[in-house]
Amino acid sequence: MSTPNANSSSNRALFLASFFTLIAAGIGFSIRGAILDDWSAAFEFDKTRLGGITGGGLQGFGFTIIVCSLFADRIGYKPLMILAFLLHMASAVVTFAATALYKSNGGDAAYSCLYWGALLFSLGNGVCESVINPLVATLYPKQKTHYLNILHAGWPGGLILGGVLALLFCGKDAYIVHLPWEVAVAFFIPPALYYGFVIFKEKFPESETKSAGIPFSTMLVEFASPILLFLFVLHAMVGYVELGTDGWIQNIMNASIGKGATWLFIWTSGIMFALRFFAGPIVEKINPLGLLLISAVLAFIGLRGLGTEGISGTTILLMGTVYGIGKTFFWPTMLGVVGERFPKGGALTMGVIGGIGMLSAGYLGGPGIGYKQDYYVANEFSKAEPKLYEEYKEGEPKSFLPGLPTVAGFNGKKLEDIRAKKVEDQSPEEKKVVEGNLNSGKYALRMTAWVPAMMGAGYLLLVVYFMTKGGYKVEHITGEPDGERYTGGTAGPGEA
Questions:
Q1: Which of 249-253, 408-412, 455-459, 480-484 has the lowest mean pLDDT?
Q2: What are the distances in angstroms from CA 321 to CA 277, 303, 365?
Q3: Torsion-angle region of 346 (φ positive above 0: left; ψ -120 to 50: alpha; else: beta)
Q4: Which of 55, 146, 420, 462 could bond to 489 as cystine, CB 3.0-4.6 Å?
């Protein structure tokens, strides 16, 4: 198999286009989180319904990664990237129709529009993800973990850009002007147009597995490994805690620190963006599984801290920093571990693990964290303030998984009407409702913190397992040992 030239202009262009797909995805994700209150007030949504929309922005991602990974090696990368571009453009059109449909058909129609718009966006993201991970592994076969981490710095880069744009143009306290949410949704379009331009003109290489002549049956055999299946379970938890929490963190923290919530989001995303460029040297020192174990411990501490009632100021910044460091390496390092340990799985194994993470975030993380907030309101606030609960609750109880109790949280429009007032103008009863909303978000974060705790236990088991096997080692696609112990490498980001 010929090794791609890491310094070729075509490879750099493809890497940069791949990077910009994640910039577009990050902006869309960040802006969606910032305008949840706009949607809540405009269409009278409660937290469970908002959680359904945030979940839609992740659900299609998971299915598409898995489906496209089944034939990515056969049909090639370019047709899939063109499909992704078309899906991203279609998502904007569908989302923009929500207001008109609300006026003519009510809240259910608006919800359907926003959900399907988010779902189309996530489908486009999923097609991109099915390509860019194996593509980068093909472009840089001896430094997979390192370049996958650099690639996935595009995600927090998009979150930062989206966060800054949200501060300037989203919400009633926007620093410049509160733009209509339709304009904010369109912020992802420029980077999408850039990657679209590149993919139409550049030639894509064959995948690593196709160049090596690896048959599909051999790729399927990789799934018989118990270690790979265990990694799938762990990555489901990664999707829940990283993407599920990030979809809600601005909305939750906004209840206590206002626009500071977006600054906190930008800060944690900035940590992730910077540190992912240095994953290679870190992995060289402590190996990928050790890095994941430390990350899980930090994520648990950070989320528990952010979920503590009564914290403010410096403590919020400290816990947010700990959480930001903890979540930084989860996703790309898990992809790197799969690429290193199961290289013959190619796009298929990497696509499946990415899809599982996204499905978990979409069906469990986003809706589940919204449900936890409504659960707190329906079970804790309602006991303390039954009359206020009846006055301010959403009319229709909802759940998000069969077997769980249905709950009704606060009506989004009524809650926003209270928060639109100055604190001194709010009645004592209204202040209780605001406090109940704040506590519901803190409760959701505390409960979510147990997910990285379970992840930490899983990573510890893997560390111990590989110690009994002589240590974590990289598998080469030909079965020959690589020259490096870990493929993180020490190359700088300039070589991308």
A1: 480-484
A2: 18, 10, 21
A3: left
A4: 146
Which residue shows structure tokens 């805690």? 241
Query: CB of 87 within 8 A of CB of 127?
Result: yes
Q: Which range (84-88, 236-240, 282-286) has the least confidence? A: 282-286
Q: What tokens appear for 243 in the block?
A: 């993407």
Give 49-66 pLDDT, tens digit per residue. Answer: 887 887 787 777 778 888
* 229 lies in some domain: yes
Per-residue confidence at 495, pLDDT binned at 50, 70, 90?
very low
Its domain, for residue 25, covers: 10-199+217-480
> Does residue 393 form part of some domain?
yes
Question: Which pLDDT tens digit goes with each residue over 407-442?
Answer: 988 888 888 888 888 888 889 999 999 899 889 999
Pair of tokens at residue 295: 């990350």
What's the number of domains the chain is made of? 1
Termini Cα distance of the chain: 21
Residue 249's CATH number: 1.20.1250.20
Does 2 fall in a domain? no
Phi, psi of 417, rounded to the nearest 5 degrees? -60, -35
Distance CA 364, CA 380 (A): 22
Instruction: Compare 285 and 379 and report the one with higher pLDDT.
Output: 379
**Cα–Cα nearest to 21, from 136, 138, 191:** 191
Q: Is residue 206 part of a domain?
A: no
Residues 6+ apart with CB under 8 A from 103: none
